[in-house]
Each structure stands twice: as structure tokens, then as C-alpha cells.
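Please annotate this fold before class:
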Amino acid sequence: MVERFFLYDETVEAKTRFVSFAGKNRRFDLAILQTDRYFGKSIVLDIQSNRFAIVGLDDLEEEGSIEAEFGFSEEDAAELREFLYEMV
């Protein structure tokens, strides 16, 4: 058996929302997980691109953050950002 050094190993309750909506240039298929972890931020998974980010209000307000995390164009990131403002 392999010996492991765990930094943490916890099971928590999570609220998960699956949402899909059509943007101007692309379809957004998202899973949004909310837990007590990550200082109240949500884990946002873009199912189509297999990318995710831990997103809070501060991340939405940081210029270029959504573009970098999800690899989106400025226009697509603006649409996602607008939606996520309603979530966080």
C-alpha cells in the first residue's frame, strides 16, 4: 500500500447548479458548485472546454481574469461575467 501525506481529506455538502445558455457567439454549459470552502467563492466548470476556476466577486472585477481562466474571447468572457455576477 502506498503511503500518502494528506494536506486534507474532507467530505462537504455542496450545492450544484447546472445551467446552459446561448451567448452571442457560443453556447455556455456550466456546472457551478457552492460550498463552505474557498472563502465563499464558487467552483465554475465550463463543461464544453473542460476548464474550471474558483470564482468570486473579486475575480469577476479583475480585468482579464475570466478570459485567462477559461480561454474565452473578451466578448464571450463579458457574457459569462454578466451571468456570474447574478450567481456570486
Remarks:
- The longest strand covers residues 15-22.
- Residues 74-87 form the longest helix (14 residues).
- The two ends are 42 Å apart (CA to CA).
